[in-house]
């Protein structure tokens, strides 16, 4: 059900409560509006995050938006929504504040919840960022395993730009392991996939990695 449908449903429930004397209608209306608010908070938080990636300046509203979404989804029993919101909380700590210690527990929660309900896409995001944390900590074996599993899930759901992004990450790990030729091969594959998918932002990351390696 979309936001407009939920808002209309809340209006009808209001009328049932006020004019029809339905004592349960108010609670049902609040749930419909909580669902709208959760989706809006998550979407607005993602847009704020995109602005950070462009500007490099933290917006203090970003974390509160994701935390609000996670809380509402949890109260609604929406595990998929909660897993996604938890991922973004973890991403905020890792990407915006460079705080892997704060990010890892939340990313692990996100991954566990997503895997538990078969939400492969959200799990792939959480695994990717857990792999990044492993790489930063020098745990290359677990970094590779998590990035490879994330890539497998992304191929499975057809998320090609995400596959290309992960191959760039795997190339860096492979280069750190001393296999430069293999790393360059991964970047060639990443470039081909990104070009086919029109993922020009990922292409810039591929080119940067090729220059570094």
Structure description:
The protein is mostly helical. It has helices at 3-18, 25-55, 61-76, 79-96, 100-116, 120-136, 140-157, 160-176, 180-197, 200-212. α2 runs antiparallel to α3 and α6 (120-136) packs antiparallel against α7 (140-157). The protein is elongated.
Care to count the β-strands?
Answer: 0
Task: Please give the alpha-carbon distance between the first and last residues.
Answer: 48 Å
Parts with pLDDT < 50 across at least 5 consecutive residues:
none
Computed structural class:
mainly alpha
Question: How much is the radius of gyration in Å?
Answer: 20 Å
- Helical percentage: over 70%
Number of helices: 10
SS strand fraction: under 5%
Note the overall shape. elongated
Provide the succession of SSEs: HHHHHHHHHH
Major β-sheet profile: none
Write a compact overview of the structure shown.
The protein is mainly α and 213 residues long. The chain is 85% helix and 0% strand. The chain starts with a helix and ends with a helix.
List the topology elements.
Blueprint: H1 3-18, H2 25-55, H3 61-76, H4 79-96, H5 100-116, H6 120-136, H7 140-157, H8 160-176, H9 180-197, H10 200-212
List keywords for this structure.
213 residues, mainly alpha, 85% helix
